[in-house]
């Protein structure tokens, strides 16, 4: 009997991003079950070995080392905090294993911190900000912005990119504050939102994620800011919307690489099959985190089978430049930076009655703008400029 092929999932089972972590786990296990039922990968059954990062970069790296050194995993994936994904990816590279970022939006992941063994499945801060910037510039031109930003690599990336694409780089006119990460208190968000309320801003960009976003949006609602400003959450997921609820989330604008209603609206059959299977299995709709983890397992399977081996160097070559269609329209693993090139969606939260009309009370997302992948991503020249500024080689090492 062929040896089991082990994959390592490194995700937050606890901490600020645990709900996004749970969705990754469910999507990954569903993919593994389907693949095993169909015969496995190169005739080998797949086993998923999981570890809890707790949202901590050092723990993420230690988990990665343990999964490779002591459990023999052939590939690793996971994330939520970009700092965790970056640290975990470095540990994987040291041991000649691929690491797929499942939920990591900082430009650095496949930019200044990118390397040969890191692949990112979702979009990055640049892509989400470019799509959002296009929509906001058209609909909120000449408006004042106020930024509340998580003080770490993802937050910095998103704010910098969003300011660029909305023309709000003047911090004297478009002010902002940071909140601690990962240990922000409710009082930190309260203080930041009081500054926003005291400003003359028309748009409140809350560059927060997971439980931090949930707490801050609830406070903003209690302060009546929904009636005074357009609230923008640059990276929004279904689990975040569900945690807050439709009454408070109504009208919030954000960006996503995928939403569960997209396949049905656009006619993507494979994506709809995933939505139906996931919904039936778990009695909830899948988020973009679940879709990312599910896609990664299948993309690894595809690359291994095209390469004819699980050897890391061969799988990397099979991935680089590969174009495919899976849960949405065409995507590509770009060769020079290992960023997944894909369409990016701007969404607005629907009214409460529409959200609740869904079988699982989850019809949150109205897709209001789509930016094709080729238009969303950084060019080679822009990517190299970022690498040069960070003192990094101009090719992946």
Task: Please explain how this structure is put together.
The chain is an alpha/beta fold and 397 residues long. The protein contains 16 helices and 15 strands. A seven-stranded mixed β-sheet has the order 7-6-8-9-10-14-15, sandwiched between helices. Strands 2-1-3-4-5 form a five-stranded parallel β-sheet, sandwiched between helices. The longest helix has 20 residues, at 18-37. The two termini are 37 Å apart. The mean pLDDT is 95. Keywords: Signal.
Keywords:
397 residues, alpha/beta, seven-stranded mixed beta sheet, five-stranded parallel beta sheet, 16 helices
- Largest beta-sheet characterization: 7 strands, mixed
What's the alpha carbon Rg, rounded to whole Å?
A: 20 Å
Question: What's the total count of β strands?
Answer: 15
Q: Separation of termini?
A: 37 Å
The gross shape turns out to be globular
Organism: Marinobacter zhanjiangensis
Domain Leucine-binding protein: 5-350
Keywords: Signal
Pfam families: Peripla_BP_6
